[in-house]
Amino acid sequence: MNRNIMHKRDIANILFITCVLALPAGPATAETTEPPLNPADAPSECRKDSDVIDINLLRKRLMETPRQINTWIDNTYGFRFVYPSHLKPSRQFEPGYLENGNWSWFSEKDKGFPLVSLALPGTPQKTTVAEIRIGVSEDPVTVRQCHNLPPNATPDSLKTFRYKDNIYTFFSGSDAAMNKSISVQAYRTVHRDRCYSIELMVYGTNPDAVDPPDYAAMKPDEAMTRLTSLWRQMDFQWLPDMPVRKEK
After folding, report:
1. Which of 63, 98, 199, 205 has the fewest CB atoms nearer than 10 Å to its CB?
2. What pLDDT was estimated at residue 67?
3. How far apart, in Å, are the Cα atoms of 86 and each of 25, 68, 173?
4. Cβ atoms of residues 179 and 205 within 8 Å
5. pLDDT-based confidence at 11, cuts 50/70/90?
6. Residue 147 in contact with residue 158, Cβ under 8 Å?
7. pLDDT at 180
């Protein structure tokens, strides 16, 4: 084989590898190995379409390529997160057979209210619904008991940890009846005298009980894994306290 041809192919391969390594990682934390939020973000030069890659054009495209993510900012309750642009946040929690639509699946409805939910795409039959919900309570008793294990949580699921100066409590719970099931993982914390509940929720119906059977629906374990991956990429953060202006 001609050495010049081999040399050009070697250069192309090196540039392709460089391209892959240079792709933006999206909002995922450094500890995760998740792919970009949307594979379509990769510039066409990064795909193995030809033996020749224009390195100058590649650099320009990497700088100009949008990440295709949006940012949700709640200035009232002081938090933000990023999410893939193809997902649509909602300010309501839809109730279901085992899902009460409360601010928290583990708490009473009149003790708080929903802030935002983010659902993964599913089948038209909604056989499996997977979403992340963030709710809040300002009820004094609920705030005092925010880190306590609720009665409907799994007893041995309670864990407490500190993250960025906030103490979080983790617990989980589940239920099943009439070919339907629900599984919830919750992160609770008190921030600025409010109890926040961040919940990863998967609920739905046995695919065999749907007419016709919906075998294309996500399995509950798969849905929870995908929710966990999404949550890690959302980069949830509390907004800094606004300085109080003093009257002159």
Report:
1. 63
2. 61
3. 18, 8, 29
4. yes
5. very low
6. no
7. 94
What domains are there in the chain, each with its CATH number?
A: 3-67 (no CATH), 70-238 (2.60.120.1690)
Q: Do the beta carbons of residue 199 and residue 104 sit within 8 Å?
A: yes
Confidence of residue 56 (pLDDT cuts 50, 70, 90): low
Residue 127: what residue type?
T
The pLDDT, as a whole number, for residue 98 is 87
Question: Residue 170: is it exposed, middle or buried by C-beta count within 10 angstroms (0-12/13-18/19+)?
Answer: middle
Place of tokens 């001609």: 2
Strand order across the beta sheet in which 159-163 lies: 113-119, 128-137, 194-205, 180-191, 166-177, 159-163
**Cis ω on the peptide bond leading into residue 212 (within 30° of 0)?**
yes
CA atoms of 194 and 244, how far apart (whole Å) = 20
pLDDT digit string, tens, across residues 206-246: 999 999 999 999 999 999 999 999 999 999 999 997 654 45
Report CA dihedral (89, 92, 94, 95) to the nearest 10 degrees. Answer: 150
Q: What percent of the chain has pLDDT over 90?
A: 61
First-to-final CA distance of the chain: 82
Q: How far apart are CA 210 and CA 86, in angstroms?
A: 27
